[in-house]
Amino acid sequence: METEILSPTSEHIAVAAAALRQGQLVAMPTETVYGLAGNGLDEQAVASIFAAKERPRFDPLILHLPAGVTLEELQGWLVDVSAFTPTARAWLGSLIDTFWPGPLTLVLPKCPTVPDLVSSGLPTVALRVPAHPVAQALLQAVQTPLAAPSANRFGRISPTSAQAVAAELGGRIPYILDGGACAVGLESTVLKLSPEGIPTLLRPGGIPLEALEAHLGLPIHLAPEQAPGVPEAPGRLSSHYAPGKPLWLLPTAFAQLQPGDWQQIQHLATGHSHLGILSFAADPQALLNHLSRHWPGVLFSVECLGSDPNTAARALFASLRRLDEGDATLLLAEPPPLSTGLGYAMMDRLRRASSLWNPPLSWPS
Ligand code: TXA
Ligand code: MG
Hints:
- The protein has 365 residues and is an alpha/beta fold.
- The protein has 2 domains: 4-222, DHBP synthase, CATH 3.90.870.10; 247-353, Threonylcarbamoyl-AMP synthase, C-terminal domain (Rossmann fold).
- The protein contains 11 helices and 15 strands.
- Helix 9 (284-294) links the parallel strand 13 (274-279) and strand 14 (299-304).
- Helix 1 (10-21) crosses helix 5 and helix 10 packs parallel to helix 11 (341-354).
- It binds threonylcarbamoyladenylate and magnesium ion (MG).
């Protein structure tokens, strides 16, 4: 199959919407990452999403909805919150009013309208209203919820540009709508709300955890890490978002590494003469000088994200992807400078991206 990258004109949106109505798949831009969209109420279209991504069927999908949708419209159609306490219902309503459209996914008890394949047999469904105008135009044109996981092959780096989608799924889908680079760059925050009003964070993401806690006025618990095979949110599988090359997550930024740390890393990296570096430093040249002084005779490809969390998040996946596609044979990533907000979400992604490879490093955790 040939994959066409379409500019988001109204004609092309109509073409994409027609394809979706016929059960085909379209990659669409959202403010977080690109999604691989299919008709979320058509079991066959949903099955082809799993096939195109090579995604195991135990990993449920998010349904994307048009802006302005209300809890009353969702009730009895997609979700069943009739067992929610009045407080839980009020919180849910106010989360929707405050954070939609935007990078917040809500996990709620589902109605039978939602195919079991979408929710991987769970009694809940994940819903979100994307803020990207192209995703919204497409949703308006198709008039059906769109199931859309990130438009990457399973377990790999999420795409934040149309070109990255083409690299992941080219030849497997007919259309990619090109909405430019994603503004947030990390997937949505996934929050489950129980009928009693107990919130659980299933995946940190574009809406900072602290913003949700401040809004609800209570602490939000993190779902425990899931064993593969029975995940409640397989974004929480320990290996995910992974490049094809080994990636090691460092204990601190290069500027703070102690002599003993340098020795350990250099020893472990013996045999690698070209390293890819993902850093939160601001100045690539200064970092390169620092690295070359400590590590003579090695070539470096450096991606500097800078310390501003919004800017860094926007660039994170594209930088990882460039390093993965480049000539380095081993990738080293610094931890984000801030451990809250988007820093927390970036750390989550880097931990998972590196989890297959980290065993050789023995940092105190
Ligand atoms: O920002 C995003 O959320 C992007 C864009 C395209 O909207 N989508 C995305 O989808 O990241 P995906 O499929 O890559 O991640 C969906 C996450 C997974 O971790 C999945 O396990 C979780 O949402 N999820 C979906 N339905 C769930 C459910 N019923 N219960 C618990 N977790 C669920
Ligand atoms: Mg994903």
